[in-house]
Model the fold of this input.
Amino acid sequence: MSAADKRVAELLDRWMTSVELHTRYLALDDAAYAKVQDWPKHQRPTRWVVDLARTRLLELKRVAEERRTRGDASFAEALELMAFLTNLLGAEHVERFIPLAQPREAAQPPQAAPAEPAKPDRKDEPTVETRSARPVAPPRQARRGRPQRAEPRPAPIADEPNVSDKATATVIADAVRLISWGREWPQLASLIARLASRPPEAEVWKILRKHRTEIETLARTPRD
Done:
């Protein structure tokens, strides 16, 4: 499986998970639906839209799997390119779309507080007399004429490797461009991670959070 095949397969799986969640959300009223996810601004999808998306998604997964079995790596690359061009040229800023829904993590059961260590019996503690009776080691005398050798310091622990400057600059440029096209902030990481030669979505989120002020400033600056 090529890198493009893997990225496309992961994207289709995320879309399928989202569609299945939207199928369950159809039973909710508008107030409950508004609270179930941190939604971007959009029109709530109806049942026929969700069903149509699921049908077309299953068909696309089948075709992608057939091409992958034949060893046709160019098909996945073409899908990625088409998704990029759709966002770049074809798509207008509309509110009628199915926003990406992500499964929430199951709540962890509360953990019991750790038991306090047993206090030692007071009678076992040394008294003032017994403590004073213990021999005290004399301080070490430095040899005359020879300076004391400094103890070697432990080497500092290297930080985890950061994302390269080139990848950071690319993600920032992608985010500025997408915001200028009308994309909402919650959509940026998913859209950027789909592009070729971009970091994974989790790394993209880290870059976006770290440089959010810079990105929003650049997106608001008019271009010549």
Q: What stands out?
A: Residues 3-25 form the longest helix (23 residues). DSSP finds nine helices and no strands in the chain.
